Amino acid sequence: MRSITISLCVSVTAVAGLACGGGKAPSTGGGGTSSTLTDLMKARGLSEIDVQAALKTYTPSGKLDEYMVFASGGHSGQVIVIGVPSMRILKYIGVFTPEPWQGYGFDNQTKDVMAGGKRGDRDLTWADTHHPALSESGGDYDGKYLFIGDKANARIAVIDLKDFATKQIVTTELIGSDHGAAFVTPNTDYVVETTQYATPLGGAFADLKEYKDKYRGAAVFWKFDRDKGRIDKDASFAIEFPPYVQDLADAGKKVSDGYAFFNSINTELAWGGNAEGNPPMESGMSQNDMDYLHVVNWRKAEELIKAGKFETIAGMKVIRLATAAEEGVLTFVPEPKSPHGVDVTPDGEDIVVGGKLDTHGTVFSFSKIKALIEQKKYEGKDPYGVPILAFKDAIRGQVELGLGPLHTQFDDQGNAYTSLFLETVVAKWSLKDLKVLDKVSTHYNIGHLVAAEGDTVSPDGRFLIAMNKWALDRFNKVGPLLPQNFQLVDLTTPKMQVLYDLPLPLGEPHYAQMIKADKLAPIEIYAPGEDPIRGEVSPFAVTGGKERVERQGDQVHVYMTAIRSHFTPDIVRVKLGDTVHWHVTNLEQAYDATHGFAINSYNINLSLEPGEHSDVTFKADRAGVFPMYCTEFCSALHLEMAGYLVVEP
Ligand code: K7E
Ligand code: CUA
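Above: inputs. Below: predicted complex with dinuclear copper ion.
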């Protein structure tokens, strides 16, 4: 896929073996004559460029994609899995929002997962998911886990890529929202979550007039236990930040391993109040020419935690701001005006910050930053006592990119790709010379972009997706709320070329990551009777012939099996007021033998993948006869896979 073809006739006939220029197409074998390629192009109004794009993305039935994209589902609170180059949507993964097809949030197991994300006593049934992060080993995606942050409620979810299912949601009342989340350290020791909007730490009350003194940001380093596949809350810690509205984050890698970088947008310490005599937030936060890039030495922070130099707030070990400043955990470097993205280069040496209100991308040098910190060469301190390095001493240079630079990704040829929101293009530039090489228009309002393994230590190049907001005029109209548009871009041609538009009608995805598909090895079935959340055979699982209903007082336990094409038992009789503990085991061990299990009027729909065991507990608080049935078309006699729940008055 290196060269752009000049003559469509040559390229298409070579690639597809089709006749060209009005010649007869090969026989379809069905007796009829198909149109020639040029006839087809004419009839559909396609150019040579269009056909080239089609040939680069078209994936015949049965052929697999080379890459998989894990995209945030935005407001939906879910994750979207997409194949590249076909741009076929392969799965929605239920994460922060109940998802009936997967039975997610309906059985006891996944209800428990969702309850891990409660704030106070409140169940939360949506999320504003922004940044997914694949687990890494040595700074490279390893295909084992996926993490994603919820900006609205400051939560992190853990998804196991063994079965593409959410296993854990964590939150801490220490902070009230996040944005620099989720990002992983190069060996997934930690999943990083950073505040966006400052609040009093731990959720205490303080009036906004006390913003400067009482409000704070923080970076939470959630410890990931790879053996268990879960975040270990007790081994996690946080670092207190000033209330500068931290934005994005990235972990150092290779030479900068052990460090993490966070940008910020509010050194002005604006807190709103446009009806109370203050400037509105957006102008209040945009007065200063510089904000602060936060440079964090997290290995040093680990040592401080071990040495007991922390306070516990809302159950989280917190390194207080004064300690972080004194002990060299936190250092600031000025960065131009309300930046947005912060992205570490594959070698770990440079940190690229998008200007947003500036036309530059600023390239900070990690080795310069490290040397300045070691020499304690500061140009001053901020009002909270955090040392500040001199901007000009900390940068390698700046690249004049254009209007509204945001996020940056990398390829395997030493190039960087930055999204320009206001100019609505992707700019390709050389990391070595800091010169723009090419730009491609996107439609419209590009936010993030994602290149193949483009934020790892070894990016692949080849494909990039521009993640555009509000796809005005790209698709058939569907009312005033517009879908988002993922545009696949070819990076192998001298000029970048848009190949495909994929509308995403579920929420605003923000970020995604693209991994080589052969790094993923999901299972096909569960072990007989396995509880997928606990990863072991359920004590309530039953085998064929052991099905039964047991009553202890008003507690009724139903031990049920599902196999094509019946449930056993298929009639369950309980009394009004009973508490019903329903245990269902799918006895199948074939890859394509999922059964659903729904009960009318009781808001129950489970999904039982082959081997899977699920439990659901409910109060039989409504008398009557309620059909229950399998919700997957599992066999020719699927419609007969049914029964009744009888609740006697
Ligand atoms: Cu939308 Cu990463 Cu939350 Cu930029 S963020 S676009
Ligand atoms: Cu089982 Cu339909």
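The first helix runs from residue 8 to 16.
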